[in-house]
Structure to design on (485 residues):
């Protein structure tokens, strides 16, 4: 027992005061504590006398080093934990406190007493506080491009939801009381000039219509002459208003009262010519777009065409030709294009286009060629007694300009030309026909294409004003009541 005491005392002494050349053993190889030295190896009363026998060696000076958050200072081990052998590991609480403090210096450190100082203590309070500070709207944050995109879409979310909840104004109507749009659209109503809808309108009324704010548009009623419109202006205007209101309510639930202004002829009731167009205003832009897109609206009691309040483009119909003995469209089309391509004729066409203010980068010869290439013809197969065919041909072309004088002069010049063929006669211009049903100049009433439209609700070719307000009952010469006409 006494032979082992010096070595035991030497081991204790070296563990407490290591020599300068002796490295400190790693924590895993530490041989201290009750596991290796039971309490009965050395008695407490002999420890003090044994220590006096060991020569005193001063502790070597240690080089100064800056404090590091990763190297905690040496602190005496609490007495209650002397007998435990824990593997040495970094203090997680110190790392955690350092990181939170580096992100936000306003976060307080936990108290140094009890479980709060333990590595197993909950640390949700500093982290929750940091998250609150990061999400605070008052904190300065520069959004990334991805975040800017998200915010931009969120700013327009309500508008997109509203758009998806409404019917598109670009779609045609599906209201059951109106004739649906046929495949390929309704037939075109050809006018004599771009502003025909304003023909014969009183100048004071036209000036007042100019001053009405947009959105606004024009309406021309089928199967009514100018005199009918003048005599029944109030009744027709009310029917127009009722139909437009029904169309507008299919888009919006709450709409302001729609207004319809009837025309007044130049010269009053004694005028020889009467206007046909009604002005519709106090409508939404969506309502106007829907009516203009479908264009033709036909019910049992009223059929009308919606037109823009402008002169966007001159009509394509130029004139009509008669004198041919063939029904072949290709032959007539060739006769027209060959005539326009003659040197003298082509030179005159170029002279018209050179004065209408076309873009500088648009060559005149190319504009002329495009105009000639756009030419097309349509057959009107007239019949006379005995069923003999007397064909007429309408000539169409697309104008490269909206200049009124250029288009009028060009049309008048082309109308004076003759259009010969080798075997099928020579065509000359003939008068255009005014359809009393749709007001087009491309055909007479008997050849109007609108009654052939599937599910057509409007007037028929052989019955005038059959679906409209009847005339007041008149009297014959003998004073007896006459029939309504």
């Amino acid at each position: 027992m006494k032979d082992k005491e010096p070595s035991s005392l030497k081991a204790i002494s070296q563990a407490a005061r290591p020599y300068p050349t002796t490295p400190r053993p790693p924590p895993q190889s530490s041989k201290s504590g009750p596991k290796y030295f039971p309490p009965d190896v050395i008695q407490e009363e002999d420890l003090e006398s044994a220590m006096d026998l060991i020569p005193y060696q001063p502790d070597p000076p240690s080089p100064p080093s800056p404090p590091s958050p990763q190297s905690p200072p040496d602190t005496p081990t609490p007495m209650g934990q002397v007998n435990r052998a824990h593997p040495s590991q970094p203090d997680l609480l110190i790392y955690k406190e350092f990181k939170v403090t580096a992100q936000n210096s306003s976060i307080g450190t936990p108290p140094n007493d009890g479980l709060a100082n333990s590595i197993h203590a909950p640390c949700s309070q500093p982290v929750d506080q940091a998250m609150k500070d990061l999400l605070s709207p008052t904190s300065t944050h520069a959004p990334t491009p991805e975040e800017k995109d998200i915010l931009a879409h969120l700013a327009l979310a309500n508008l997109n939801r509203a758009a998806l909840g409404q019917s598109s104004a670009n779609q045609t109507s599906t209201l059951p009381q109106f004739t649906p749009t046929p495949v390929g659209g309704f037939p075109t109503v050809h006018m004599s000039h771009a502003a025909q809808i304003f023909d014969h309108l009183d100048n004071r009324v036209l000036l007042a219509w100019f001053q009405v704010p947009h959105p606004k548009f024009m309406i021309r009623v089928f199967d009514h002459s100018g005199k009918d419109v003048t005599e029944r202006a109030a009744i027709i205007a009310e029917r127009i208003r009722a139909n437009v209101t029904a169309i507008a309510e299919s888009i919006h639930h709450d709409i302001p009262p729609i207004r319809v202004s009837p025309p007044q002829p130049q010269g009053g009731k004694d005028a020889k010519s009467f206007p046909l167009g009604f002005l519709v205003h106090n409508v939404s832009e969506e309502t106007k777009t829907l009516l203009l897109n479908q264009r033709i609206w036909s019910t049992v009691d009223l059929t009308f065409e919606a037109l823009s309040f402008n002169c966007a483009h001159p009509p394509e119909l130029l004139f009509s030709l008669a004198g041919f003995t063939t029904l072949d469209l290709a032959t007539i089309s060739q006769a027209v294009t060959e005539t326009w391509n003659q040197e003298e004729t082509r030179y005159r066409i170029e002279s018209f286009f050179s004065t209408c203010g076309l873009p500088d980068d648009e060559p005149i010869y190319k504009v002329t060629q495009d105009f000639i290439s756009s030419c097309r013809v349509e057959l009107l197969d007239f019949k006379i007694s005995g069923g003999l065919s007397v064909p007429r041909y309408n000539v169409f072309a697309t104008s490269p300009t909206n200049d009124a004088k250029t288009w009028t002069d060009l049309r008048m010049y082309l109308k004076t030309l003759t259009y010969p063929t080798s075997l099928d006669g020579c065509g000359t211009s003939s008068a255009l026909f005014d359809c009393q049903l749709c007001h087009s100049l491309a055909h007479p009433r008997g050849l109007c294409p609108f009654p052939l439209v599937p599910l057509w609700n409007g007037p028929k070719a052989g019955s005038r004003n059959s679906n409209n307000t009847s005339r007041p009952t008149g009297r014959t010469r003998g004073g007896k009541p006459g029939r309504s006409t």
In short: The chain has a mean pLDDT of 76.
